[in-house]
Fold this protein.
Amino acid sequence: MRYVYIAGAGSRGVTMAKYLTYLDNDVEIKAYLYDNDEKNPTEIEGVPVLDISKKVYLNNEYPVYIATRGVNQEKLKNSLKLYGIKKCKKSVDIFFVLLYNNSCVTE
């Protein structure tokens, strides 16, 4: 099993989780992460939603897929660095990799 975090607990985060788990059955979402004042659920389909502006435990070996609006991504990435997260992937980059790796791009 490959464990990952998704930064973003809104529709973008949920969509990212659906794509990742659909394309790779070996992926398990360990938590959704956020660091803003917006109202967020405490869990999404049984997966915890964690406010990283408060002290929470994160395994810094798990990659984080950032699935938020572009304007929020840099602040979130900086918050994740404070936790020692080693791998952050932005949603735009992931989208193109998923397309390419799954033969959705036509030549």
Remarks:
- The helical segments are 11-23, 70-82, 91-101.
- The longest strand covers residues 27-34.
- The CA atoms of residues 23 and 102 lie 8 Å apart.
- The radius of gyration is 13 Å.
